[in-house]
Amino acid sequence: MDTEEEKGHASMRLSSTEVDDDGRTKRTGNVVTATTHIITVVVGAGVLALAWAMAQLGWIAGIAVMVMFACITIYTYNLIADCYRYPDPVTGKRNYTYMQAVHAYLGGKMYVFCGLIQYGKLAGVTIGYTITTSTSLVAIRKAICFHKKGHQAYCKFSNNPYMIAFGILQIFLSQIPNFHKLTFISTIAALSSFGYAFIGSGLSLGVLFSGKGETTRLFGIKVGPELSGEEKVWKVFSALGNIAPACSFATVVYDIMDTLKSDPPESIQMKKANVLGITAMTILFLLCGSLGYAAFGDQTPGNILTGFGFYEPHWLVALGNVCIIAHMVGAYQVLAQPLFRIVEMGANLAWPQSTFLNKEYPTKIGFNLNLFKLIWRTIYVIIATIIAMAMPFFNEFLALLGAIGFWPLIVFFPIQMHISQKQIRTLSSKWCVLQMLSLVCFLVSVAAGASSVRGIMENINKYKLFMYKQ
C-alpha cells in the first residue's frame, strides 16, 4: 500500500500535468484550432462587399491591393506572435492580452492608446455584426417577397425588430464563461462563413455561365455623367477601407494564442496558423470579389447577397443569408468575450473583496452564474443594439471599423514592438523601411476613415434615426 508521502508526490505529479508553466489550466489548442478561430473572425459578411470594392478599383488595382494587404498582415501578425512572450519569444513570460504585450515592449502610454483602439474596435465590431445580422434577416424576408410578388414589388422592411431579436439572443450567449468555451460555436461559425461565401460565388458564377455577366474594367468604374471625379476618389478610399482590414483579427490574436499548448512554442504554432488562415482567406476573398464583379460590373451592389444582385433561386439566396446569420451569432461572442473580460478584470482589481463581483451561483446548464457579469454584459448588448438601430448602414460602417483598427493594431504596434524586441537601431535601413510601411498604411486608414464618415453623414441626413428601411 502507498504511504501518505507517496500519495502526496503522486498528487503533485498529477497537478503538474494539468497546469502550464504559469500555473494556469493546461491549454490544448493547436494550429488547426487556431486557424479555425482566425477564419471565424476574419470571414465576416464584409467578404460579400469585396465585389463592390473591386468594382471601384478595377481588376488591376483590386487584385493587387488584396494580395498586397494579405502579405502585409501575414508579416505583421508574425511579429505579433513573436511578442506573445517577453522578452524571449520562446521562454519569456506570457502576455495574456495584446495590451499586456504593448505595455511590456512599449510602456504605459502606448498601453493606454492600444486599449482605447482595441476595445473601441471590438465594441464597434459587435455593433457592425448586429447590423449585418438584421440586414440578412430582412434579405430573407425580401427574397420571399420578391419571389411571390415579382422583382418590381415594394419589399422594404424595418431592421429594428430583427436587431432586437438578435440582441436578446446575444444576452443569453454572452453568459458563456470564457473564450476557451467557444470552440464549438467558433467551428460552426467558420463553416457557415464558407457557406455564404461559396453561395455568393456560386450564384455569381451562374450569372457568368448564363452569359448575363456585365462589362468590367481594368481600372474600375469610369468617371462620367453618373460619377464625378470627386465621387470616384471617395469611392476608391471606401474600397480601400473594405479591403485593407479584410484579414484583421488583431483584437483577439492573443486570446487565440492563449488557447495554444506551450509545446511547440506558441509563436511557432501561431505563425503557421497565420499563414494558413490568411492565405485561405485571401484566396476566398479573390474568388468572391472577382466573381461578383464579373457578374455585375459597374452595378455591383454593396453586398452581393443582401443587395439583391440575385433574386432566384430565392431559396438559395435565403440560405446564403442564413449562413451569414449563423456566422454572426458565433463571431459576435468570439469578439465580445475579450471586451467582457477586460472590464471584469478591471472591476475585480478595483474591488477584490466584493461579493457582488466575485460570488458565483451554480446552474443546471453546466456553468456558474455571476450577477455582475449578468448585469454588465446585458447592459452592453442592449447599448450596442440601440446604436446599431440608429445607424444601420452596412458598407459605410464596415469601412469605418476597418479604418479605425487597421493601422494602429495591424501595423503600428507590431512594428514598434518588433523594433523594441530586436533593438533595431533608429535610422538604420531596416528601421526606415518599417517606418515607411507604417506611414503608407496610416495614410490608407485616414483616407478610408474620412470616406466612411462622409458616407455615414450623408445617410444620416437622408434617413430619420430608427426609421431606416431596406
Spatial arrangement of strands, main beta sheet: 1-2
* Radius of gyration based on Cα positions: 23 Å
Residue fraction in strands: under 5%
User: What's the order of the H and E elements?
Assistant: HHHEEHHHHHHHHHEEHHH
Strand runs, count? 4
Overall pLDDT: 84
Can you tell me the overall shape? Answer: globular
Q: How many structurally independent domains?
A: 1
Biggest sheet layout: 2 strands, antiparallel
CATH class: Mainly Alpha
End-to-end separation in angstroms reads 75 Å
Q: Percent helix among the residues? A: 55-70%
For the record, the CATH architecture stands as Orthogonal Bundle
Derived structural class = mainly alpha
Unreliable spans are 1-14
Family: Belongs to the amino acid/polyamine transporter 2 family. Amino acid/auxin permease (AAAP) (TC 2.A.18.1) subfamily.
Protein name: Amino acid transporter transmembrane domain-containing protein
InterPro entries: AA_transpt_TM
Keywords: Amino-acid transport, Auxin signaling pathway, Cell membrane, Membrane, Symport, Transmembrane, Transmembrane helix, Transport
